[in-house]
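[agent] plan:
  1. take the single chain provided in the ticket
  2. run structure prediction with default settings
  3. attach structure tokens to the ticket
  4. add a short note for the reviewer (M.T.)
[agent] executing step 1
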Amino acid sequence: MPKWEYEREWLDWEEGMQLSVAELIPPLPTSGSLLLMSGHDGVLSLQKELKDDKIQNGNNNNNLNGGNDAASEFVVPLPDYELMANVRGELAKRLHGYAVDSCNEHKVSSLNQHQQQQQRHSLQHSLPVMGITVATDTPTNNYLRRLLYTIDFDAVGSIVITWYDEQTESQLEGNERDRLSHTIILNALEEFIVQKKFVEILWDDPAQQRQQLHNKVQLADVSSMKSMSKMATSVHQYCRYNSDDAHRNNGHNPTSCQNELIILRFSTNLGCSSGVNNPLFLHPRAPHWLIVNYDIAYPPGVLNSMGTELQKTLVSKPDLAVHTFGYIYGRGKIENPWSNFVMTSCAVAKAGVWDENIFPAYYEDDDFRDRIRYIMGEWVDVIGHDVFRNIPHKLMNDTHLIRYQTDRSVAVAHGPLSATTYLSGTHEALKEEPEEENHGIVGWLFAAKAKKKKIQQKDPYYYEKERWNIYKEVADGERYFRCKHGALPDPGKHGEDSLRYFGWHERFIQPFVKRTRFTKLQERMTGRSAEIGRGLDAFSDDPLPWSLWTFNATRRKCVHEATN
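[agent] step 2 finished; step 3 output follows
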């Protein structure tokens, strides 16, 4: 095929996929429609004032009512990180136990591949749990609303939304209140609940606990919900019923629940990793979890295709840890594999959850990928191999653990529909809107005056962007990453993946333990005995020290205070 025909064919397909997504999104509701939705039974509880008895407001000197101090306008309440450490640590241990059982269950030696496939097809939904994290959105993008309208309820069972709803005084006041993330996200959730006929249920009702096994969808674990409620500003659980059952039972019979929606609202940003872990903690028995950025959108049929492909992969790769999917603009390549991916119970059982000590974001995905490879991967000796003659003697093989799939059947929209390359969702949400061009000295003077006035008014979006940049610098995820896993050698001409081509001696055997395979050999040669920790040899290959994650409350508090 000539190059120009190949290019035209790709463009036609991309435009067709973009159009198919756009056709799924109805026009924005009118103000009158929004008013009617706000009075719906299912959304009234979402509109309640933020509680001040949760951990987000545990510091009375740093709450939302900061007096007349100008600095307090932008202060985000300080969480009780010690409480978080205890609660989330227990959730992680509980999840790990279930993940080990789930991983072993689907790899039972007595089951052949056909039986394993039949067992997975017995699931009501091929993608039982979807996790979404959202903190910022704009009226221009409305990414969360777009994503919600493209979810296929036949493929996805439960949707867990982590909402970082930072309502500081500066956001509750001012002339641009309708532009703020809080209103944009709240309107999207209310519209979704009403249009898709979700009904709120009482997750802490004992009767519901007895009825959970009869649902068409596996509801969130009640004990985990109780633990999460100790940290969240609010926890809401909704069910989408079969229309006949809903009418017959007045819409409140959880035994006929077809799909579940959970909204976890926090009044401060707890970081990317916390958002990834929340759906895992609430659904610890799930065999796998779909984690998706809020700026993703699914063309018709793609979620079903993703579920089908995942099931095929699990049959051929029983140790699969991550299955990630490509984008419409990718043309066979994935620029960022961590915007739409599936984590399996085997990944959690052996490599643990995402590390919430890397806060608020950046590098936590590299950390998780490297743990998977370092624990579950295989170092292959490639000395003398013609294909690998120019690289070091050890190559990390992770093809049985991570699948990067870029087929057209699983390609999704990411960022603006017109995107031709990867764009950071955070960057897009917080970037300044382009200013109108002004001609002449008079126009320049008016523009300068308007900009000065905008800064004096302390536009919340401007502040959010600045604070996020400070977050990144103070958190310094890359330095933390290196401290935890060892120095990252220069990948040289063989690619950017330092672990795949290097690191056989340089990487740490265990997190935060400054011992590599090279130092291990040195200690054995000198007769120095290995330290004993947790009842195990510190050099043991047992993945337990990796998979049992712990929360560093001191570090998180330091980062939070530094950015406020």
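[agent] step 4 note for reviewer: The first strand starts at residue 127 and ends at 134.
[agent] ticket updated
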